[in-house]
Amino acid sequence: MWEASNQTFCSDESASNIVLRKSVDNGESWGDAKVVIDSGEGMENGRQAERHTWSIYDSVNDVVYLFSNRNVNGPTGCDCWVVYKTSSDGGETWGELIDVDEGDVYGMGLAHGITHSTGRMVGCMRKICRNSCPEDYASRAFYSDDGDNWSSSEFLHAGTTECSIAELEDGRLYMNSRPYKGWDGEPNRRLVAYSEDVGETWGEVEVEER
C-alpha cells in the first residue's frame, strides 16, 4: 500500500489516494493497483492529502485495519485527523470509511502496527504540537482492544516523529522514533522507549545511535 498523488506538485499536503496491489505468490507477482481510500471520499469541499498509510492485522478476528491521516489545508495543527477502513477478505473488499476522534495527527507510523500477545492492537503516530511545545512534533502510541474504540498514549518526547513499534519477548513494547531536529546537536540518533502496560504509558527515552 502506498500514497498515489493526483496533483502535479510534490508535497505532503498534495491531494493523494491510498492505493493497493496484492500478491498471492509471496511477492513473485502483483495484481493491478486499486484505490482503497480516495482523497475526496466523504469530503464536502473537494480533495485533500491521504498520507502515511499504516495497517494492523487483527490475527484474532482475521481483519485488516488500514489507517491514513487526512490533511486538508497543510500541517497547521487544525485540519489533520485519522481515518480507517477494514477488510475481512484479505484486502479484496473494504468497508466504509470511519473517522477516528484523534485530531492534529500529521502522520501514522511509519511501518505497520502489531497485535500484542494480549490481543490488543497497537501502533504509533506523530502529533502536531506547534502551539504547545517548541519541537513541533511528538510520537505516541495508538491502541485498541476491540477495533472499535481507539485511544492514544502520552507523548513519547517532544521533537520525536516517524516511529515504529514492536513487542519484546517479555511482553513489553518497544518504540523507536526519529528526533525531528536531531539530539544534542547530533543528527544520527534514534530515541527509544519501553512500555510495560501495552502502550498506555512509556518510560524515559534512551538514545540509540543509528
UniProtKB/TrEMBL annotation:
Sialidase domain residues: 10-207
GO molecular function, one term: exo-alpha-sialidase activity
Pfam families: BNR_2 (PF13088)
GO annotation (BP), single: ganglioside catabolic process
Any single GO CC term annotated in Swiss-Prot or TrEMBL for this entry: cytoplasm
Gene3D superfamilies, sorted: 2.120.10.10
InterPro entries from the UniProt entry: Sialidase (IPR011040), Sialidase_fam (IPR026856), Sialidase_sf (IPR036278)
Protein name as annotated: Sialidase domain-containing protein
